[in-house]
Each structure stands twice: as C-alpha cells, then as structure tokens.
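Worked Example 4.2. Consider the chain below.
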Amino acid sequence: MIQTKALKFAYSGTKHFTFPDLYCADEETLLILGESGRGKTTFLHLMALLLQPKSGNIVLDGEHIEALSQASRGALRAEKIGVVYQKAHFVRALNVIDNLLLANYLGNRAQNRSRALYLAESLGFSDHLSKKTSQLSQGEQQRVSIARALMNEPRVILADEPTSSLDDANCRKVMRLLTSQAKDIGASLLVVTHDQRLKDEFPNQIFL
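Applying the procedure from the previous section yields the following structure tokens:
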C-alpha cells in the first residue's frame, strides 16, 4: 500500500505544488488525472522517492519515508517500487534482456530470466530481447520499460503516461497486464496520465 498526506513540493522556491491526500491499498488501482503543469509527474516522483517533499508524509508498505536516510530510501525504491517513466531510461550498452535483468541486480535479487521471458512474451517484444534498446521503436521501448518495472514484483507500481506512445490494441494489452500483475503480486498500482482512453478502466480516480 501507499499513502500520502499533506504533501508539498517546490522547485527552486518558484513553483509550488500542494497535492491531495491519497491512499491506495494492496491490489487496488488509482488513476491520477490532470492538465499539463499541474504536477502529475512531480507527484509520482515524490511517491517513487526520487524527490524529497518540502513537507508532508509518505507511507509505503507500512514504512514512514520521512524517517529514512537517503541510502535507505534508495534501497527501498529498488526493492519495493516499480517505476514506468514517461521517457524510458535504459543502459544503452546493454541489450533488452540485460536491461530487464539489471532490475534484479539493483533490487538485490537473483536474476530471474524466466520472468523476463514471460513479461517479454506478455508485452509482445520477445523477438527483440537481443537488440539494443536504441534499435526499438518508441512504443517498444515503452513496453520494455513496463516489463522492467515489474521484474522484482514490487509492492507499489507507479506508471507515468504508460500508454502515451501506444496504439489502442497495445494500450489495452498494457493496462490488462499492469492491472493483472498488481492483483497477482498484491501491489498497489497508480497511473498518472492525460490519456482519456484510461478513464473507463479505473474506478478510483483523483484530479490535480
């Protein structure tokens, strides 16, 4: 589960955000909607422990984040949070499957090649595992990014515009996989988007 309360953040003291409180239990899904500039990605990065809030609290899987050191926050993120970034970030020198297995290494897990193959098959890029990520289309990179976020069976899945570069068929495939994986592994799933195709897929929604 993940919970936030009274979160505030400021960029260099010029742009200030105050975010609504939220609670997303295990196996639940939550859609976060809002126009550009309302801080959707900032909100997600706070929950992903990539940014430090100006004030407020985050509780992740029972742990109060404000009490943790920076090193402990990084370890918690690698172990328990799966992040699908709006723009995919890969190690360019590695091929697709090694980028997936890198998630295991960073999370202090044994390499799980069978899970990588399962996710690649489920998301339709199993023919590209030996390629460098730079050889993939934008949509293919997005699907690899989603698979990487799921490699360690995280407690919380945070997805920033996961369907923005996908056609309708792959949009449905990705959302089915994300929601089914969240349920199967008992994770909370939070999706930040302006993709109106997703509005009917999520009963729980908040607007920034």
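The chain has one domain: 2-207. The radius of gyration is 16 Å. Compare this with Example 4.1 before moving on.
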